Known about the structure:
The protein has 673 residues and is of the alpha/beta class. Helix content is 61%, strand content 9%. A hairpin with a 2-residue loop joins strand 9 (634-639) and strand 10 (642-647).
Amino acid sequence: MAFHGAGWWAYISHDEKNERPIISRALLYRVWEFARPYRLKTIALIFTILLITALTLLSPLLLRQLIDVAIPEKDMSRLTLLAFSMVAIPLVNGLIGIWQRKLNSEIGEGVIYDLRRGLYEHMQRMSLRFFTETRTGELMSRLNNDVIGAQRAVSETIVTIVTNIIFLMGSLAIMFALEWRLTLLGLAILPLFVLPARRIGRRLRALHRQSLEYNAEMNATMNETLNVSGAMLVKLFGREKQELARFGKDAVMVRDIGIQQAVISRTFFMMLGVVGAVGTAVVYWVGGYMAIADALTVGTIVALGAYLTQVYSPLMALTNAPVEFAQSMVSFERVFEVLDIPIEIQEKPEAAVLAGAHGQPEAASGRIQFQNVSFSYQKEGERVGLAEVARMGWGGDREAHLKRGKERQAEGDPKGGQNGQSANGHTLEDVGDLGAAELTPEKRYALQEISFSIEPGQLVALVGPSGAGKTTVTYLLPRLYDPTDGRILIDGRDLKDVTLESLADNIGMVTQESYLFYDTIRANLLYARPQASETEMVAAAQVANIHDFVMTLPDRYDTVVGERGYRLSGGERQRIAIARVVLKNPRILVLDEATSHLDSVSEALIQEALQRIMQGRSSLVIAHRLSTILAADQILVMDKGRLVERGKHEELLAQGGLYTTLYETQFKPVEML
């Protein structure tokens, strides 16, 4: 049987600190809820296990008949039937095994599909705060490692346990029926092996934990240095040799511990083989003595020996079944942990569809009101991101990060901090000793009591020093976050009272760092409106001043832009992002002009494109250029999260306040270049 004991320690190797996880009734019921759609297939799977077990248990009995009856009695017909049966049983077993494998795969893959789709759907509904407080690697771990672990719990661990129980019960029943004394004698040797096997299991568990930690560090190095931004940083600072050395160090540890695991694993299988051989030898020796004394037949001895060799492996596996099963539930617990994170940006059941959404005949007017809006990025009393989980196989544990930080310090890497200090002034050792609560800053508001209105078709410019809260304002309008206090209205409706889809349909946003998928220009443009025609797409590209450039490319609109669009220049990426918003044709625009770091040609093209698309739309713009400010119907001056001044350009200059300072230091010098 393929199930019996193969790699039994692999399941308990995830057992941290040698503790057995507690399995609650609620957890089991929730797992059953995921397995419920496959209950008929599960019943059929158990039926195949019973059939295969029954057929497997027949083989030693056929040997007994052959030796004790057919040969001594020279019964050719019985001999022929037995020989035919010895061929037919493996054949039928194999055919049933194929059916069993199909059922098992359908159940396992079905569960993994349901879990993965549920997780992805839940993550898609999370607020931006969730993603800023959660590491991407941990999200990938939940979607991949934990979901696959849950699949194994259903399709491997549980099936293995059930198979071993059924096979063991059937084998022992037949063995005791054949000769109970020899059966007890064969089982008596097992305890002599259990204790050494458990010690080997603990050693393998420790090695497995170390192996995953080393792999996590190696994967972390690859993740940091093989993405576009990381590779660029390595090259700019000339750190290729140092990064190769650190990666090589991690790879050597992974290699060495892999060798240790292989040797100890082989030692375990050797011990299992020795025990089987000793037990079989004892049974044959005592049984042979009994056969000589005519107390037992030779066929019975052979049958008992065959059963005994098949019993040791599942018996050993079942001694660890409680831990094995408990550990298989850990992945389910981690999946449910994500599914239980509350959704911050909720849509009310009675939410109204905002005019101007797809399928709505009338257009939204685009009147925007901020009423005493305050906002803090810290959220009290509710977990938003994923908890720090000591997971084997994930490279995000605190110790690994501290270790890498110290290594960078020793090598003079600026990411490791100066003189052993982190960015907030704590040493690495301090960070390790301080609790999370001690490192958490007091709640700070990014916005405080902000109130303003944008009339339909108006252009409102946001200006202010860095950290004033301008970007936060633009995040609140499309409900990437909800205000901590106050409310935001569109056409007289609170954002919380309209559907998220209709809100997204009415708002177009161009951020300072435009993100493009690793796909064609066409696919990136049509992401805004998949049903748009070729003519509409080209027209949007022309408005954004990108069409002429696209037509110079060999594949034109079918050109692949590369990772994050890095095959294009910053200005080209920005104009594609603008074209994408133009194709969407929203009633409200939220723009970060993002022209301050571009060449003069790209800047001029983007400025012209922005002026075109803002016409007739309500626009909220973080202004980087004086030309935008002069064209604004209203200028909002922000400082330290507060709205300190408002008005038109000349009015604000006459006040001689913060706007005047910004004009003299930021806007006027840029325009004079």
